[in-house]
């Protein structure tokens, strides 16, 4: 495991950093990080204390005070250099993502590539923090809006994207003039420590203030709660389950803070009779089994027209039969492990529930044992015939279960099944029929934040705004104008005349 050394991961690691400096608390207990790949202990991490948290936030506030005055293109230059560092460590960090979280090495590398891409994007953005100029109704007045840095941004991230989600937030926050404070998932803290170590060289070379990029490793119920209730953090970006997001949104709203919520999905692909099945099949299988079904954009429901149902079902069973399940660092394997044995239990429980509701598991569903599966986290992805209204189908089970759902009439019927869930993240239709595609994308079509034609649900480019509607939370991150969430908007009106006309023509003579 040379990559551990290359990334500065020790046997025991401290859990809080303000940049280059780490706090050395050891009395709060430690997290023992075990790889889902082989069940081996990788390293441990000391949990941060309340005092550590206080120290980090105080440094972050101070750093923000300095950083907001640095011209945005110069802030972009720092992000550019960090992107170069990431390129150097892509292979090592991609391997750690794969080993600590369990996704395939390809996807681990892909995640680091996503970090590099958002750095490049943020560099460009640093010269484009535009406001608008409006015409004033009053003579000799000028009106415009501008965007100012916001403060210290709290980033709470999920286990399944241990590094990319932080960069989507932190790199945009940095060019916007904000400091950031990251609480990663306690299931994948080593990836966060590695990122902090990679950052160190850029921090050193540019003499950046301590506190600009901070890390606090602790439980959601402790460090997470402190962040939610901390008025010094004007924005909290939460990526995680709808349950955590619902709670977080309430807490932060209670102090009139802002949130970006990136929560659970229940994503579907519609296959109409006009679908090109050669294209659709790999998109469906990758979407359903990639990252072992643990992406927020994983394909969970397949809504198939009855005219092609039997053909699709048969092709899927065949494709699933050929899936290679095993060590994700071996590039020949398609599917790695689930994150832990709790996730395996949730997978089995979901299959029990769907059977009770009348569903039929047509392939997969087993927990794998024996050589190569010692961690107990490997399962065979399942395909299940089900109906959309089943309670279990309405939920997000974070595991590789694909529900096949049949529709009979026009595309409207498929869309109404598609939208009939509480989540609204990613969606797709496969069709060669222009009418069907346009209806799917129209105001009466998909109600999700992401809607694709002839592309699966899983995997997005950083250039677009990423996020979803309904119980997915409504947040947007990454590309397009998502940067605006990290800044405060101010409307300015300047009177360059010699009189004081009031708006709406109101007269007030003294
Ligand atoms: N929409 C998206 O962009 C997106 C992306 C990735 C993952 N997700 C979702 O994340 C979930 C899987 O990730 P997970 O199992 O790590 O999610 P989770 O909700 O268990 O944890 C997410 C984060 O919240 C923290 N947390 C837990 N309790 C908290 C509290 N009381 N206060 C503050 N923070 C708290 C956790 O420590 C972790 O860092 C899935 O539902 C998935 O769909 C969504």
TrEMBL record:
InterPro entries for the chain: Ald_DH/histidinol_DH, Ald_DH_C, Ald_DH_CS_GLU, Ald_DH_N, Aldehyde_DH_dom, ALDH7A1-like
Keyword tags: NAD, Oxidoreductase
Catalytic residues (positions): 262
GO molecular function, one term: aldehyde dehydrogenase (NAD+) activity
Enzyme Commission (EC) number: 1.2.1.3
Any Pfam family the entry gives: Aldedh
All residue ranges annotated as the Aldehyde dehydrogenase domain in the record: 22-491
Highest taxon in the source lineage: Bacteria
Subunit organization: Homotetramer.
PANTHER family linked to this entry: ALPHA-AMINOADIPIC SEMIALDEHYDE DEHYDROGENASE
Membership in a protein family: Belongs to the aldehyde dehydrogenase family.
Name of the protein in its database record: aldehyde dehydrogenase (NAD(+))
Species for this entry: Geothermobacter hydrogeniphilus
């Amino acid at each position: 495991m040379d990559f551990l050394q290359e990334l500065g991961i020790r046997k025991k690691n401290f859990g809080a950093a303000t940049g280059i400096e780490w706090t050395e608390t050891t009395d709060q207990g430690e997290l023992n990080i075990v790889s889902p790949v082989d069940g081996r202990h990788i390293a441990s991490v000391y949990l941060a204390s309340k005092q550590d948290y206080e120290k980090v936030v105080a440094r972050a506030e101070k750093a923000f005070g300095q950083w907001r005055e640095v011209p945005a293109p110069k802030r972009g230059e720092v992000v550019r250099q960090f992107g170069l560092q990431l390129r150097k460590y892509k292979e090592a960090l991609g391997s750690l993502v794969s080993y600590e979280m369990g996704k395939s090495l390809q996807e681990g590398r892909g995640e680091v590539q996503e970090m590099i891409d958002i750095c490049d994007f943020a560099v460009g953005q640093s010269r484009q923090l535009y406001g608008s100029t409006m015409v004033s109704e009053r003579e000799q007045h000028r009106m415009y809006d501008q965007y100012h840095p916001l403060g210290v941004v709290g980033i709470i991230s999920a286990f399944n994207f241990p590094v990319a989600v932080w960069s989507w937030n932190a790199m945009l926050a940095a060019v916007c003039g904000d400091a950031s404070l990251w609480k990663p998932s306690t299931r994948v803290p080593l990836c966060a420590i590695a990122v902090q170590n990679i950052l160190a060289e850029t921090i050193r070379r540019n003499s950046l203030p301590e506190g600009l990029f901070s890390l606090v490793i602790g439980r959601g119920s402790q460090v997470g709660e402190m962040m939610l209730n901390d008025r010094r953090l004007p924005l909290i970006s939460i990526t995680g389950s709808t349950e955590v997001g619902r709670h977080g949104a309430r807490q932060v709203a209670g102090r009139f803070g802002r949130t970006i919520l990136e929560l659970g999905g229940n994503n579907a692909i519609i296959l109409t009779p006009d679908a090109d099945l050669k294209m659709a099949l790999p998109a469906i299988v990758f979407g359903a089994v990639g990252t072992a079904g643990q992406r927020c954009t994983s394909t969970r429901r397949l809504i198939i027209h009855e005219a092609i149902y039997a053909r699709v079902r048969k092709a899927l069973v065949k494709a699933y039969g050929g899936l290679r399940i095993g060590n994700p660092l071996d590039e020949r394997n398609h599917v790695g492990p689930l994150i832990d044995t709790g996730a395996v239990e949730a997978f089995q429980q979901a299959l029990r529930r769907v059977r009770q509701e009348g569903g039929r598991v047509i392939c997969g569903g087993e927990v794998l044992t024996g050589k190569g599966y010692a961690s107990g986290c490997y399962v065979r992805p399942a395909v299940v015939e089900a109906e959309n209204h089943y309670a279990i189908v309405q939920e997000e089970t974070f595991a590789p279960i694909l529900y096949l759902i049949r529709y009979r009439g026009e595309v409207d019927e498929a869309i109404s099944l598609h939208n009939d869930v509480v989540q609204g993240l990613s969606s797709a239709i496969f069709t060669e029929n222009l009418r069907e595609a346009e209806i799917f994308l129209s105001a009466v079509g998909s109600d999700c934040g992401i809607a694709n034609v002839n592309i699966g649900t899983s995997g997005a480019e950083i250039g677009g705004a990423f996020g979803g509607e309904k119980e997915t939370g409504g947040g947007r991150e990454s590309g397009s104008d998502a940067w605006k969430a990290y800044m405060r908007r101010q409307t300015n009106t300047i009177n360059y005349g010699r009189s004081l006309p009031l708006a709406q023509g109101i007269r007030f003579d003294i």
